[in-house]
Amino acid sequence: DAKTTQPPSMDCAEGRAANLPCNHSTISGNEYVYWYRQIHSQGPQYIIHGLKNNETNEMASLIITEDRKSSTLILPHATLRDTAVYYCIVRVRSGGSNYKLTFGKGTLLTVNP
Amino acid sequence: GAGVSQSPSNKVTEKGKDVELRCDPISGHTALYWYRQSLGQGLEFLIYFQGNSAPDKSGLPSDRFSAERTGGSVSTLTIQRTQQEDSAVYLCASSSSGAYTEAFFGQGTRLTVV
Q: If 0-12 CB within 10 Å is exposed, 13-18 middle and 19+ buried, where does residue A91 land?
C-alpha cells in the first residue's frame, strides 16, 4: 500500500467545516483512497472512499486532486461528536487477494464548542 | 448478526498463559481482519482472511500468535505464552468480497497481561 501523510492534529470550531488533508504522493493507478475515523474507545468507522472523482455521502465529501497525490476529507458542519482520529488509507483496487487496510497514525480532530 | 461481534470484551490474564479471542463477522462477509491497538497508538495489522485463499499472516509479530477461521465464518486469534507487551485492544473487522467494500469493525477485546 502507498504511504500516507497526515497532520497529527487539527482543531475546528463547532458548526464550521473541517478540512482534513492527506498526502499520498506514491499512490498507484489502481489504489483507492479510503477514510476511516475512530472515536475514543470504539472500533474504526468507515466514512468514504474514492478513486479519482470527488465523492459525497451523508457523512462527508472527499476531494481528490487531479494528479491523485493528495486528498481532502471535508466534514461540512462539524459537531462535537466528530471529535476523533481520522485515518487516510490507500488500498489496492484489484489484482491479487491482498486488500488489507494499513492504518497510519491519522489526524486527531478536536471540535471545539 | 447486526454487526461484528467480539468476545470477550475484556480479558485479564497472567503472563505465560495462553488466550483465545473470538470474532463473529457479519454474516456473508468473506473477508476478515485482525488488528491490535496498543494504548495511544495506531492500528497494527495482524492477519487477513479472504474466502478460501491462504491467509495473509504478514503482520503477526511472533510465532506465539496464530489465527484460524473455521467454515469461513468465526475466527479465533490465539496468543500463546502471553507477555506484558501483548497488552492491547485486539480489533476484528469483516467485509464482503471485492476491493471497493468497506470494512466493519467490532468493538474489540481489551487484553491485559499482568
A: buried
